[in-house]
Design goal:
- Helix content is 55%, strand content 16%.
- By secondary structure, the protein is of the alpha/beta class.
- The N and C termini lie far apart (54 Å).
């Protein structure tokens, strides 16, 4: 009886594994490789809710397509830099930012906004480096779209 139970359990696990693989393969076939630019230039609102939702949308996108099938950029300018300012103290945002970066999401920060608002990327923003700075957020969006990136504003 014990053997039969183990055999049934092993078969069930194998069937679930095949189903999961089929789902991943179907998603890969359906969505293929993608180049996407996400755009945030708005305030996060109460409890950074809009920022957390936008980053969650990006993660859901990655989950559906697979990080290995995606080239994702996040362009921040204007009030969108608030994502990284809030992440200095909001551990949930920190986790989301680091999780996305760990899946090769490149974050592009607008130098015009840094200069115009006198923001120090080193002191005022979470996990931003010189190579993350682009001259202009809006020009970067246009540049990426010309390279075939799909534009998404969550």
């Amino acid at each position: 009886m014990k053997y039969l139970t183990s055999l049934v359990l092993a078969c069930a696990i194998a069937i679930l594994g095949v189903a999961a693989t089929t789902t991943d393969a179907e998603a890969q076939e359906r969505y293929g490789k993608q180049k996407v630019v996400y755009h945030i230039n708005y305030s996060g609102g109460e409890d950074d809710r809009a920022y957390r939702g936008a980053l969650r949308n990006m993660q859901n996108h990655i989950n559906a397509v697979g990080a290995e099938n995606m080239d994702i950029k996040l362009v921040l300018h204007g009030d969108g830099l608030g994502v990284l300012a809030a992440a200095k103290t909001n551990q949930m945002l920190q986790g989301q930012v680091l999780e996305l970066k760990g899946q090769n999401v490149a974050i592009h920060v607008c130098n015009n906004t840094l200069q115009g608002r006198e923001i120090s990327y080193e002191n005022d923003l979470f996990d931003v480096f010189e190579e993350d700075i682009v001259p202009s957020g809006v020009a970067e969006l246009s540049h990426l779209q010309m390279q075939g990136y799909t534009y998404i504003k969550p």
